[in-house]
Structure formats: structure tokens, C-alpha cells
Amino acid sequence: MILLDHLVWLANFAAINGYVWVFIAGFSIFGVGRLVLVRRGGEVRLDELREERGLTFGLDRSRPVRDAARLLRAWLARVSLLLLLAAGVFGMLGLTEASPTYGYIHRHGASASAVIEDEYLTFTASDGLTYTLPYPFFTTPAYPDRRHFPSDGPVTVRYLESHPQAYVVDTTASG
Amino acid sequence: MIMRGLRTILIAALSVALLIWIGQGLLGIDQRGGLLALVPGLRLPDDLIFAPIMIGTAWGILLTFGGSSWAATSKRVSGPVAMATLIESRTTGLTINEVPQFQLFLEVHPTDGEAYVSQCRKLIRAAEQRDLVKGAPIPVHYDLTDPDHVTPADPADPEVRRAVLQWRVDRGLIEPGLVHARLHGTPERASVLELRPTGRHQDGQTELEVKLLVSPTDRPPFEAVSRAFVHPEGVRMLQVGSPVWAYWVPGDPNRVAVAITRDDAEQEENA
């Protein structure tokens, strides 16, 4: 379950910042997608032809570095595309009050009493640290009553013990 | 080049800002103040809560519209002229005004070094695409410090013409006996009287035996026989009655080299 905790922690970050991630994903997916799809065959073919013809001028010039950079760039683009897609999806779920991460945190999280003040929520987790986290208006993490937005004052939160940054306001206990 | 560097720096800066924001959101313990909380003593006004949206959107737009496009990857090289021969060609998928762009892989033969393989991108009209055969000569600008790129040279440029002519001499496309007349002779107007293919082919060109009526400005006209390798495009310019240019050293009517245009005129088609 620890692995799932980590994944929920990451997905919940996208959900709780839904507005930001929908914008970022929407504006960058085409650019990153093009980086993934673009044919970089030209440089490879050039090296192949040089080898075939035995004309090595320009061939061994910092080639391992260039190959490594090319490979790194390609994988970075692929991973970024995947992450951006996922962040866009979870951001959208967060905005439409349908994020599955809230339910998970509510079920598996530890309970603590918190105070909401000025769009920030403060609570002391079991690790002894006092966390001050954003309490966003548009993607308020409230569960199970997702439409219940407690404003300033004391509430009860549930948070993942491995990552207290992933929290929800427990509406059954907060009244 | 400067724009490109600027863009890279901007993308990198925005990426770093985004990564800091993500790191802070995932790991921060006191997240009050947002991104600017990293600067000690600074408190973020509430309206700036949308800063990550701005940064992320700018980042996405730069990646989408500012990245290297097909056209931008054809780097311009300005260096001396050399002849290159085509190894292979392929379309890049880009067309401009319905003219497709090709990626050409070339074997470059610099005058001051050994041959090497390079590549360039060029827009090539449908009519010229049949010239894209293996071994086709293409004059290019090259730069030995950047062997991965060459730039196709403008055939109307006198320097390029000299390089093409020298290449023709070196390849034997001009009869050894006529080289002196072709390189150092004076051009005179001439007309084609007779024409006969010799049956020899080289580098995609056919050899023709041409009987010319040369009309020097200060002498009576005389007849001369010459030979020339002609590009298939050039054959239609070299028909009976066609006006051409004859290069000869005055006083030696047995050695006359024929050319479709003068070296100092526009659009030379060497013959």
C-alpha cells in the first residue's frame, strides 16, 4: 500500500492544483508531443552513411556525448508527455470535484484537527511537524461531502502519514 | 541564433520555476507565501497565487510554438564552394507553396581536404526532382568546422560557376584538348549546324558532337567541330540553329569549346 500512497500523493497534487495543471497540460501537450514524434532520423542516417562509405570525417566527433544527449532528450520528452497527460487528467478530475484521491486519503489517512486561516490550513501531523498547506477555493479537498467548503475556523483533516501534504477536510467530523 | 539562445534560456528558467513550485507543493512543510517564500523575508500578495498558471502556460506556449521547426533545422553554412555528389534524398514532409522540401545526403569534395559525408535541406520543384539521382553534382557551401551541415550554393554566383566548371574539367566532362580554350578562350557567338550523339554517357550527361558556325566579331565566320557533355535539360538548348557560345583561342579554329551560355551571363548551363 505504501506504493499506492506515493502515487496518490503525486496525483493529489495535480488534483488540488487542478486549475494550474489543466492550463499547463493544455498548453504544453502539443509541444511536448511534437518533441516525442519528431523524426530525428537525419542525424542517425548521416552517421550510418559515413560508416558505410568509410568517410569518417565528422563521425567520431563527441559522438557518445551526442548519442547520450539524444537518448536522454527523447526519454525526457516521453516521460514529460506521460506526466503532463496524467496531471491534466487528475487536474480535470479535481476541478470537477471527482478526484478519486480524496476518497483514498479519507479512507487510509490519519486524523488531525486543523485550523483554516487566509486560504491556508495548518495542522500538526504525527511526525511532530506543523504543516501549513494551501486550502484552495476552486479545488477544495473536502470528503465525503465534496460540496462542503468550511471557511475560516477549526476543522478535522485526514492526511497520508507518509506524505502529510496530501490531505482532505473530513466533512463528517468537521460539521 | 540569438533568439534561439534566448528562447532556450527562457524555457530553462520557466522549467526551473515550475520544478521549484512542484517540489514545494509536494514536499513543503510551510507552504504559505508560495514560490516567493523561497526568498527570505518576502511575503506573496494573494493575487500572485496564479503565478504558476502564468509560468506553466508560458512554458507550454514556448515549447509548442518556439521549438525547433522543420525549417529552422536547415542551418545555413557560409563558406567556400565545393562540389558534392548526391548519395540519397528523402522528403522531409514539409512543403512551401506546394514545393516539397528534401533532405539530401551528400558526399562533399572540398578542394582543400578529403571527401566527407554531410547533409542539407532544399526545396525542390517537381520538374527538378528527376535530377535527384545518385551521383548528381550539387554545388554547396561547406565549413570544415561543421561537417554535419552544408548549404546548397546559388548556381548564378560567379564563384559557384567557377567551381562547377573546374569540377567538369576534373571529371573529364570537358575534352582534355578543349579545356584550355574553355577556360582561357574568348566567347564568340555561334550557331549549331549539325548535331550527333557520340554514345558516351557520364554523370547523367550525354556527349554530343556539334558542328558549329562560329562568327567572331573581327573575322569572317568559320565552321568548327566540337564535343560536349550536356545535361539532359540542356539538350533542347543545343539543337540545329540554336544560338550558342563558342570559346576559342583566336588563331586556333580546331579547338573550339561550346557553351550554352556565357560564363559572365546569368544562368549558365555548362555544355
* Major beta sheet, strand line-up of chain B: 3-2-1-4-5
Order of helices and strands of chain B: HHEEEEEHHEEEHEE
> Between the first and last Cα atoms of chain B, what is the distance in angstroms?
41 Å
The fraction of residues assigned to DSSP E strands of chain A is 15-25%
How far the N terminus sits from the C terminus of chain A, by CA atoms, comes to 30 Å
Could you give the order of the helices and strands of chain A?
HHHHHEEEEEEH
Bin the helical content of chain A. 40-55%
User: Under the CATH scheme, which architecture of the largest domain in chain B would be assigned?
Assistant: Beta Barrel
Average residue pLDDT of chain B: 83
For the largest interface, the chains and their residue counts are: A-B, 40 and 39 residues
Mass-distribution shape of chain B: elongated
How does the SSE layout of this entry go?
The complex is a heterodimer of chains A (175) and B (271).
Chain A: H1 2-16, H2 18-37, H3 41-53, H4 63-95, H5 100-108, E1 110-117, E2 120-124, E3 130-134, E4 142-143, E5 153-159, E6 167-170, H6 171-174
Helix pairs in contact in A: 1-2, 1-4, 1-5, 2-4
Chain B: H1 2-27, H2 51-66, E1 81-96, E2 99-109, E3 116-123, E4 137-141, E5 151-152, H3 158-171, H4 179-184, E6 186-202, E7 205-215, E8 222-230, H5 232-235, E9 243-248, E10 256-259
Antiparallel strand pairs in B: 1-2, 1-4, 2-3, 4-5, 6-7, 6-9, 7-8, 9-10
Helix pairs in contact in B: 1-2
